[in-house]
Amino acid sequence: MLTAQAIKMPEFDKSITDYQNLLEQNNFIYVETEDPNFDWIEFSKLVTGGELILQYGQPIFYVRYEPELMKFSDARGERRLLPHTEASDYQTPPNYLVLWCKKPSDCGGGMTTLAYVEGFLKTLTEEEKKKLMETRHHFGATRGVHANRTKGAIHPILSFEGKKPVFRFSCNYIKYGDYSPDPENLKPFTPEPFLGEIADRFLAYYEENHMAIRMNQYSLLLWDNKCIAHSRTTYSDPTRELQRIFLRNS
Predict the structure, then answer these.
(1) Could you report the per-residue pLDDT of 148-165, keeping only the tens digit for each?
(2) CA–CA distance, 71 with 67 (Å, rounded to integer)
(3) 236 C-beta neighbours (distance < 10 Å), count
(4) Among 151, 165, 150, which residue's Cα sits nearest to residue 225?
(5) How far, in Å, CA of 2 to CA of 185, rounded?
(6) Domains plus CATH for the chain?
């Protein structure tokens, strides 16, 4: 496990261009402030050049503890999330995800983790990559707490924009047919064999190669949703609260 300390950027005397260059270089940025009124949404739009889009019908998603989801592998539960890229069931997933930490967890858990997709692709054979690029898969859960949250989408798991990979993947969905399963009450489900194997290998890669970010209060974490997968560790503090937005380039 790695940490993001080396590229944390708390200094606000830097120009937007500096942050843009940092994002281009690393595909994510982590910014700490001490300002509860910092306009993190406008800052994110300026850095990415993206526009705010709705996520499941709302502009801001509140990532906070909800008792009815406590036992699920869900952003609003306390269980570990499996790695994924966001909104694989969207026709066009967001280019960027942004988290704003309003209140960190006091228990020490709830760390956001990131891993580059490119490293995982290097572990695949050319035949495996070709299959991920040529086969179109349906994404859209019909079971669980998020069943039919969208109309779903059909797209290849892997594509490229120039040399940059675009990965559309959810370990929960691939392995369990459910975006937010209950790990202790998994419903019978048989994943497609090839994708099931890819998911298991991706999980193993992620465990060895992810970066962990413990977000401080009034900090911002922004990353490229196309080439970075993300997850979150378990936590038990019900006062933890983050806000999340989706950004898409025109």
Answers:
(1) 788 899 999 999 999 999
(2) 8
(3) 14
(4) 165
(5) 32
(6) 15-246 (3.60.130.10)
